[in-house]
Amino acid sequence: MSCKSSILCVFSLFLGSLLFLFNTGCASLPEDDVDLLGNLEQANPNDEIKAAVLENAVISDSGKTVVLLKSQSEGCDVFVNGIFQGKSDLKIEGLVPGKYKVQFKKKGAASEIYEIEIMKGYELTYFISLQ
Questions:
Q1: 3-25 in b/e burial notation, b at 16+ Cβ within 10 A?
Q2: Which of 6, 53, 75, 116 sits at 20 to 30 Å (Cα–Cα) from 99?
Q3: How does DSSP classify residue 116?
């Protein structure tokens, strides 16, 4: 068996294995166009997306990207792109720069969706006001 045919055999086995994994759901490719609303509970496509108030923006001494999400009442559930992150006031490090949808929920208060923008190398503080 020549070198070229050996490489071709190994490559064919590799591709066959990948196709098997993708077809059985054991593996998936990252999506380029991810729905920014993600799995936000009770989100409606007609819901208004509000701009969060950027309270403070400073260049990070450590060079890390950091965001602090604050609300007028502590202990709100905080979701970023539909994924629960913790309770407010919440500090998140290492988010990739870009726009994110943030939802704060607290029993007895209206849940609203806000958009924030993350900038690389900055410490950002956003304030969310629940109605």
A1: eeeeeeeeeeeeeeeeeeeeeee
A2: 75
A3: E
Per-residue DSSP letters for 57-75? EEE-SS---EEEEEESSTT
pLDDT by residue (tens digit) across 15-43? 444 334 334 444 433 333 233 334 444 44
What is residue 39's predicted lDDT score, i.e. its pLDDT? 40
Q: Which pLDDT tens digit goes with each residue over 69-88?
A: 998 888 899 999 999 999 99
How many H helices and E strands in the chain?
1, 9
Those residues whose C-beta lies under 8 Å from the C-beta of residue 14, and which sit 6 or more positions away, are none
- For residue 54 the two structure tokens come to 């950027």
User: How many other β-carbons are positioned within 10 Å of the β-carbon of residue 36?
Assistant: 15
Enumerate residues 6+ apart whose C-beta is below 8 A from 119. 57, 65, 97
Q: How many CB atoms lie within 10 A of CB 104?
A: 26
pTM score, two decimals?
0.61
